[in-house]
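Our working data are protein records whose layout never changes between entries. Instead of coordinates, the fold is spelled out as a row of discrete tokens. Here is such a record, shown just as it appears in the course material:
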Amino acid sequence: MNGISALLTISLITFFVLGMAVTSSLSLLLSINFESAFAQTDTPIQEDGKSNNNLSNNTVTYSYNIYSSNNNVQEAPARLHNSSVSYYDNNTTGYLVYPELANNTQQQLQQELMPAVVIIHEWLGLNEHIKNQADLLAKEGYVVLAVDLYRGEVATDSNRAMELASSVRNDPDSAIDNLQSAVNYIKSLEIVDGTRIASLGWCFGGDWSLQLALNSSENPLAATVIYYGRPVTDIASLSSIDWPILGIFGDQDQSIPVESVKQFASALNASDVTNEIFLYEGVGHAFANPSRDNYAPKETTDAWQKTIGFLRTYL
């Protein structure tokens, strides 16, 4: 009897511990399982979600090893090819990066065309952080083009960033033309499968990732990823999107209220747009940027894994 009692006690303790672990995991984020644009205003969003954005430290060391992979298959480190390319008029240069596979012949490359992603920078511009993000994505097997909506300028303080972001928002036709040119450029590459192209943007870039989707019915994408970009809730506008959307948001974002995220999700549902909308508890705007006060490592890692899984599914 003593042996049976001991086993019963151990079983109950184990059940309790596992239950606490599951509860803790579920509290990490709230996933809105609706299927999904919030009319875009001209009021600039502070990238940290606060009224003041202190960027006094312009030199940042990013901990990019935080992005752990779910892939249990051991693979050789990816060798990357990167270059600056002119993709839109004579004044706009983007950052192109893609994996180089050793010992591949040209014929093999043509038989194994790669998916591609157009990524759109935050309000500071096409800086080293965004280029490093492009490298990370390329290591997952994608051809990546990081666009430049600021024609070569990179902001180093919030005031200039706001000016640049506002100038783009005040000329949306040029911004969309820029992004569509990026899609056409990457589609023209002989190593890219033109039917497997996505867009991905953070903050200011999240706004434009969604706007690109809303203006691509004649040149459709395969997927759209938005990190805390301003939602759009007009059902008629969203109905033009015929591919899946992934949305990543924080419930403490002062720039994007929780209610607007829920409205976005509901509008996507009503528009029959397949989507995955995730609302992370306890984190604010720009939580996935290691240089910001709002940076949340665990949520960033989880969001990145969801991003890679989403792209693998739909590209």
About this structure: The chain is about 35% helix and 20% strand. Confidence is low (pLDDT under 50) at residues 1-31, 33-45, 48-75.
